[in-house]
# Entry
Amino acid sequence: MKLTAKTDIEAPASFVYAALIDHAAWEREIIRRGAEIDRPADMPLTGVGAGWNLRVPFRGKVRKCRSGLMK
# Structure
């Protein structure tokens, strides 16, 4: 599945980029929302190829998904 979203942001590009690549902040936010997250050992921590395994409660069931940075 490929998801795309576009939003105009009134902030310097460097500020927006720094917020988007802050993986630790994204992981904390996911955990706060009730999901479980871990990183596969065979994937890098940052950059292209970084990935996560997620277990997310959704509509009464725990759903599993794998997310990663492709480009």
Summary: Helices lie at 13-20, 23-32. The first helix runs from residue 13 to 20. The mean pLDDT is 86. Residues 13-68 form one domain.
